[in-house]
Amino acid sequence: MRSFWRTPDEPLSAPAPTGRIPDGPLLRDIALVCLAVGVIGLSYGAVAVTSGFAWWFPVLMGALVLAASSEFLFVGIIAAGGSPIAALLAGLLVNARHLPFGLAVHDVLGRGWRGVLGTHLMNDETVVFALAQDEPERKRAAYWLCGLGILICWPVGAALGALLGSAVRDTDVLGLDAMFPAVILALILPALKDRPLRRTALAGAALALTVTPFLPAGLPVLLAPAALPLFTVRTRKEATR
């Protein structure tokens, strides 16, 4: 666990600091994403309460499920009159993306109880930060720092949102849901300077947008990775030139 606190913005050969978390761009980005997640938690908690759920429900779900998209979907289906079984199955389907996530970051999860906790912390943000790092130690540090930050910010945001929901009946007017995708877009923009990656990302986005009118919420994004072979093919072509 000690290495989590010394590697985010220090070279691997740097001496261990005296218990202080180092500052730097990576920690700043992680903090911004955790803040954005907390703000989205406000919206989630408020939506859950205004949909008829008890105040503690979004807080408990936030800590135990820790998956915003499936939680929003679950609450939305129940609020629309759907059955809990249908809501549960829909949430599991949306979270099916965690299967390839696990294959991509298997080396940072750890073993035993760390592996269980590491799997629980797996989400879009932790995987993005981990895969953006070059060294294994930095990858592990980014994953765990981001995951633990979200584990705190998401339920806390949901709790504050539950209180907000009792005062503001229409939470859509606040536009809280726009903050999270804006932060994620800002984080991935530097990577899109790579031409093959940019073309692949645009192809995946186009595919997801094309099928959105025909598929339930959450499924189009699962089809976006179908564009990944384009990245592999173009990368190989450029490597052979």
Describe the structure in your own words.
It is globular and about 45 Å long. With 241 residues, the chain is mainly α. It has helices spanning 25-50, 56-64, 68-79, 84-94, 98-104, 112-120, 124-131, 136-165, 179-188, 195-211, 219-223, 228-240. It has 12 helices and no strands. The protein folds into 2 domains: 2-15 and 24-191, no CATH class; 194-241, no CATH class.
Keywords summarizing the entry:
single chain, 241 residues, mainly alpha, 2 domains, 12 helices, disordered N terminus
Give the SSE map.
Elements: H1 25-50, H2 56-64, H3 68-79, H4 84-94, H5 98-104, H6 112-120, H7 124-131, H8 136-165, H9 179-188, H10 195-211, H11 219-223, H12 228-240
Secondary-structure class? mainly alpha
Helix content: 55-70%
- Number of distinct helices: 12
- Summed up, the domain count is 2
Main β-sheet description: none
In what range is the share of β-strand residues? under 5%
Mean pLDDT: 78
Low-pLDDT residue intervals, each spanning 5 or more residues = 1-7, 9-23
**CA(first)-CA(last) distance:** 44 Å
Helix-strand topology string: HHHHHHHHHHHH
Compute the CA-based radius of gyration: 19 Å
Total E-strand runs: 0
User: What general form does the structure show?
Assistant: globular
